[in-house]
Specification:
- Belongs to the pseudouridine synthase RluA family.
- InterPro entries: GK/Ca_channel_bsu, Guanylate_kin-like_dom, P-loop_NTPase, PsdUridine_synth_cat_dom_sf, PsdUridine_synth_RluC/D, PsdUridine_synth_RsuA/RluA, RluA_PseudoU_synthase.
- This is Guanylate kinase-like domain-containing protein.
- There is one protein chain.
- With about 425 residues, this protein is α/β, with parallel strands linked by helices.
- It folds into 3 domains: about 1-75 and about 200-210, Pseudouridine synthase (2-Layer Sandwich); about 85-195, Pseudouridine synthase, CATH 3.30.2350; about 235-420, 3-Layer(aba) Sandwich (Rossmann fold).
- Helices cover about 30% and strands about 30% of the residues.
- It contains 12 helices and 20 strands.
- The protein has helices spanning about 35-40, 65-75, 160-165, 180-190, 220-230, 245-255, 285-295, 310-320, 335-340, 355-365, 375-385, 405-420; strands spanning about 5-10, 10-15, 45, 55-60, 80-90, 95-105, 110-115, 125-140, 145-155, 195-205, 210-215, 235-240, 260, 265, 280, 300-305, 305-310, 325-330, 345-350, 395-400.
- The strands form 3 sheets. Strands 1, 2, 3, 4, 5, 6, 7, 8, 9, 10 and 11 form an 11-stranded mixed beta sheet that branches. A 5-stranded parallel beta sheet has the order 13-18-12-19-20, with helices on both faces.
- Helix 6 crosses helix 12 and helix 10 (about 355-365) runs antiparallel to helix 11.
- Residues about 40-45 have low confidence and may be disordered.
Length: about 425
């Protein structure tokens, strides 16, 4: 295994430790940073500090006795600045300081635990540990919150960050030793198979030149892919029964947030006199089926003998270019979105209120001038069934008669809050 070198001169070697490998070689002769550096014919002065096996990032090695003594003293004096990046379970405060003692857990051989005050009965010597964290960003994944934090430690106790974050109710995701039931379940859903903790930056005084040097490690691919997945723009879908006012709210919302990308749809029906803001591609049934089979249409819904479906290619193109997409979808089509785009889909149910009001809206819909009584009856019956979908939506917006302005305000706040990583309801 080739270990990436971040910095090297005659005195020190800074390497980019991958997860899954120990820092030092144990009695069993396991492969480690120490042994691998030896295999690369690098004269070893000494491993100056350790990273946990499943923690990645900057690891510094002294190449001379002088460098070893200098760096060990800097670590002992807490003069070295160590910054980590981690994803943790839950919504953390914007900033926080954690100061406790860390001792060995009497119930678990390899584990440590946080202790507010020593009692004298601890297993081993209680050691003071100080951790500072700053929240960089937050997301919501299904029914859980996630926080991306930058962590700085003044001390370097065993498992310090992992123990401290768990002690305040925000365990590091992927941690197999310090976890909660919900954090472990979330880690599995996200595909995190090691603690998501990365030693991103180390600042020290060079042993020979006395210059301040900062060594930085790029985020490894496994953690980067998790953050990329979480950070991708959302897809908002407005759902609700016919007559709920979805298109009206969409049009008003776009006037307030013009950067939102309205996803076009395919349909086999004829253009109406007034279409609103939603773009349509009017196609024949043959053209629709061809696009469907080619995978260009996300879902296929039949309404009044006409086919409807969302342009999947347009969604993918919009997301790749950094746009946030929005559309109106029949409740029956929601699952097709979530199957492909998963947690990025945010469904917002537009609630029209009492059924009697909904029926009146359907009968007087200005966009459906000329609809037959049979068509009206069909729309009303289907609308009554579609009301049940509000139980599964991520958000609910009340759009009762006379309250359209309030509904628009609710909708706008949902878009703003969730785009900033705030919680779903």
């Amino acid at each position: 295994m080739n270990i990436p070198i971040l910095f090297e001169d005659d005195d020190i070697l800074c390497v980019d430790k991958p997860a899954g490998i120990e820092t030092t070689t144990g009695p069993s002769g396991n492969q480690s940073i120490e042994s691998l550096c030896g295999q690369n014919n690098i004269e070893r002065g000494g491993i100056v500090h350790r990273l946990d096996k499943d923690t990645s990032g900057v690891c510094i090695i002294a190449k001379t006795p002088h460098a070893y003594a200098s760096l060990k003293k800097q670590f002992a004096d807490h003069a070295i600045i160590k910054k980590y990046i981690t994803t943790v379970y839950g919504a953390t405060p914007e900033k926080g300081d954690i100061e406790t003692y860390i001792v060995r857990d009497p119930k678990r051989t390899q584990a440590m635990r946080a202790l507010t005050y020593p009692t004298g009965l601890e297993r081993g010597i209680p050691r003071l540990a100080i951790t500072h964290y700053t929240k960089i960003k937050g997301w919501h994944h299904e029914h859980s919150d996630i926080s991306l934090c930058e962590v700085r430690i003044e001390t370097g106790r065993t498992h310090q960050i992992r123990v401290h974050m768990q002690s305040i109710g925000h365990p590091v995701l992927g941690d197999a030793m310090y976890f909660s039931k919900t954090s472990r379940e979330l880690s599995k859903k996200l595909g995190i198979d090691r603690q998501s903790l990365h030693a991103q930056e180390l600042t020290c005084i060079h042993p020979t030149t006395d210059e301040t040097i900062t060594i930085t490690s790029p985020l490894p691919k496994d953690l980067e892919s998790i953050l990329t997945s979480l950070s991708m723009n959302n897809i908002y879908i407005l759902v609700g029964p016919s007559g709920a006012g979805k298109d009206y709210l969409l049009e008003k919302l776009i006037a307030l947030q013009p950067d939102l990308y309205v996803i076009p749809s395919y349909t086999t029906r004829k253009p109406r006199v007034t279409e609103g803001i939603r773009p349509y591609q009017y196609v024949t049934e043959l053209e629709f089926e061809k696009a469907w089979k080619a995978g260009n249409i996300l879902e296929k819904v039949v309404e009044h003998k006409h086919l409807y479906g969302t342009d999947k290619h347009a969604i993918d193109t919009a997301l790749k270019s950094g746009k946030t997409a929005i559309t109106v979808v029949e409740p029956r089509g929601v699952e097709s979105f979530k199957k492909i785009y998963k947690e990025r889909v945010i469904s917002i149910y537009i609630d029209p209120g009492p059924i009697a009001d909904l029926e009146r809206r359907i009968r007087t819909d200005p966009n459906r001038v000329g609809q037959t009584q049979k068509e009206i009856k069909t729309r009303i019956e289907r609308a009554k069934k579609e009301v049940a979908y509000k139980e599964t939506a991520d958000f609910l917006v009340s759009n009762t008669d006379g309250k359209q302005t309030d509904a628009l305000r609710q909708l706008e706040h949902i878009i703003i809050d969730t785009s900033q990583g705030l919680t779903k309801q």
